[in-house]
Design goal:
The chain has a 5-stranded parallel beta sheet with strand order 7-6-5-11-12. It has a 4-stranded antiparallel beta sheet with strand order 1-2-4-3. Strands 8-9-10 form a 3-stranded antiparallel beta sheet. It is 51% helix and 13% strand. With 548 residues, the chain is an alpha/beta fold. The chain contains 21 helices and 15 strands. The chain has 3 domains: 89 residues, Arginyl tRNA synthetase N-terminal domain (Gyrase A, domain 2); 211 residues, Rossmann fold (3-Layer(aba) Sandwich); 118 residues, Orthogonal Bundle (Isoleucyl-tRNA Synthetase, Domain 1). Helix 7 packs across helix 8, helix 7 crosses helix 9 and helix 17 runs antiparallel to helix 21. The structure holds one RNA strand of 77 nucleotides.
Length: 548
RNA sequence: CUCCUGGUAGCUCAGCUGGAUAGAGCAUCUGCCUUCUAAGCAGAGGGUCGCAGGUUCGAAUCCUGCCCAGGAGGCCA
């Protein structure tokens, strides 16, 4: 409908004067006094042209051609143009939705892109915790959304299986491993070691698998690979439980691979123009590209920094020919972005093609109190523990319900509750209720005729029905907005709202009645609600059970 | 000290690319189950949109300053 009004406005204005770069905003109105749709174009244009907005609006309205789908057009307030649509026009979207039998999705991107989205990428030095869960939920939902709207999306996890932290992990496990053979480890400096119980469990596992072969480590790489592999198995299992599935896992160590030689390549790229040696280290002159200070690529002890391999990783991503790269990072990395962008520019790649989304912290609330967390001391709640406690659906919904760049307080008690307080259950309940109505219909030996329903949609004319018809079309707007802004939380709010409208409708009147035409029309509306809830929940990757 | 986020109802948050009377949920109070799932519904109260200026027909939304909270500023990752 919006598109049709848009067309109408453009042609009306073009009839009046030559107009360049018209950006017309059309919004659904909040109150019915203002009609169905409204545009402020007259006020915007009047400002540009130094005219009186009301006068201009009047002229625009007068130059509209008569259309049967418009009941009336009004000038209101300081210059709004309000469109009152005929009933038929309001049913247009509904019919589209219902005609589309298979996978219904209301929005398709005009310029389809090939996108690489990288998220989670948690260091394999410990299990995933509740903070990672948020990035995982968001990344997977956003990927689904972008896929559904017509893009090609590859989901990637970058595995930091190289460098200092990895070494510390290996040492941590090795010490525990030695203890299992009653070997004295008191001389080992373990202040920086990882301390969680998973270290001990991993040591036991390795003892079982490999017996005493690693008491004296001959091949450190073999030991590290074994440990990383075990850690990643655990992480993948958790992700899998959480309905997060990656297309690819990219190893940092690949960048150091002698054949691939990605690190050397980047050093060559940067060497002549953009790097210098100081105090025995090799630096990247990132200040040349807007960063606060220059950054070290190779430390004075000859170790490559994480930053260096990250440049190589980004270069590799760019070379894989995607139209767009998306990074989903924890917000504690936001200071890291300028140097990465600097490196990208230095490599003569286009930083515009890299979009970084930051995910804020998560704190857990239980019985009204905050649970404190810190990764190093292993004083954290793992994602597995959270999933066990609240379930996958509730966890995903609560993670996604808030704008991603805003800190999240995750209320465990609310997530567990199974009543209307809990939005997940509330939405799922609406879906299940519709399914239950369909079953009841069959039980009473009545047959649902979709065609008859569609033909009789105009029988639906009470207030809650008209409201639902209108808000079903909102879904399209919400999805479009989410695709544009790379966000998903509006879907959560929308679904709760739609569910609420349905529950209200359900309570206000009996759906199953003896008037066949009306009944089919009502069930057609229910089907539309059902499809919309399903579609939205699919984006969030949350189940819609038929029975609760 | 510098930079980044945020400050909206008692609580948790939407709204922020300027639009018409600022919205949800929770919590509180009052009603509704012999009828399709009460895991539900109907109704009520609750606001100086952190403070002060500015921009304009119009500001929660944009700009400036200040206050408060959290985060970032390694040859860690």
């Amino acid at each position: 409908m919006k598109d049709k009004i848009h067309e109408l406005l453009v042609s009306a204005i073009n009839d009046l004067y030559e107009s360049k770069d018209l950006s017309i905003e059309i919004v659904k109105t909040k109150s019915e006094e203002h009609g169905d749709w409204s545009s402020n174009i007259a006020m915007i244009e009047a400002k540009k042209r130094g005219e009186n907005p009301k006068e201009l609006a009047k002229k625009i309205i007068n130059s509209f051609s008569k259309e049967d789908w418009i009941e009336k057009i009004e000038l209101a307030g300081p210059g709004f143009i309000n469109f009152f649509l005929s009933k038929k026009a309001n049913l247009k979207y509904l019919k589209e939705l219902l005609d589309n039998k298979e996978s219904f999705f209301p929005y398709k991107e005009k310029n389809k892109k090939n996108i690489l989205i990288e998220y989670v990428s948690s260091n394999p030095t410990g299990p995933l915790h509740v903070g990672h869960g948020r990035g995982a939920a968001f990344g997977s939902a956003l990927s689904y959304l972008l896929k559904k709207s017509g893009n090609k999306v590859t989901e990637e996890y970058y595995v930091n299986d190289q460098g200092l932290q990895t070494k510390i992990l290996a040492d941590s496990v090795h010490m525990k491993y030695l203890e299992k053979f009653n070997i004295d480890t008191s001389k080992i400096d373990s202040t920086n070691f990882y301390k969680g119980s998973y270290i001990d469990e991993l040591a036991s596992k390795i003892k079982n698998l490999k017996k005493d072969t690693f008491i004296k480590i001959k091949n450190e790489k073999e030991f590290i690979d074994l440990i990383i592999n075990e850690m990643m198995l655990g992480i993948k299992e958790t992700l899998n439980n959480f309905k997060v599935n990656f297309d690819s896992f990219f190893s940092e160590s690949y960048l150091y691979d002698k054949k691939a030689n990605k690190i050397r390549e980047v050093l060559e790229d940067l060497k002549s123009d953009h790097s210098f040696e100081k105090e025995g280290a090799l630096w990247f002159k990132s200040t040349k590209f807007g960063d606060d200070k220059d950054r070290v690529l190779i430390r004075s002890d000859n170790q490559e920094t994480y930053f260096l391999s990250d440049i190589a990783y980004h270069k590799d991503k760019f070379q894989r020919n995607y139209d767009e790269l998306i990074n989903i990072w924890g917000s504690d990395h936001h200071g890291y972005l300028p140097r990465v962008k600097a490196a990208i520019e230095a490599l003569k790649l286009n930083p515009e093609n890299l979009k970084t989304i930051f995910i804020q912290f998560v704190s857990l609330i239980k019985k009204g109190k905050k649970i404190s967390m810190s990764t190093r001391s292993a004083d954290f709640v793992t994602l597995n523990q959270l999933l066990e406690e609240v379930g996958v659906d509730a966890a995903r919904f609560f993670y996604l319900t808030k704008k991603s760049d805003q800190a999240l307080e995750f209320d465990i008690d609310l997530a567990i509750s199974q009543d209307k307080n809990n939005p997940v259950y509330y939405i799922q309940y609406a879906y299940a209720r519709i399914c239950s109505l369909e079953k009841e219909l069959k039980k009473r030996e009545m047959i649902f005729d979709l065609k008859e329903g569609i033909d009789n949609l105009d029988l639906l004319e009470n207030k809650s029905e008209l409201e639902i018809i209108s808000s079903l079309e909102d879904y399209k707007i919400i999805i479009e907005q989410c695709c544009k802004n790379y966000e998903v939380h509006p879907i959560c709010f929308y679904l709760r709202d739609l569910a609420s409208k349905f529950h209200s409708y359900y309570n206000s009147e009996t759906i199953i009645n003896d008037d066949q035409k009306l009944r089919n029309a009502k069930f057609t509306l229910l089907l539309a609600i059902k499809k919309t809830i399903k579609s939205g929940m699919d984006v969030l990757i949350i189940e819609t059970p038929e029975k609760m």
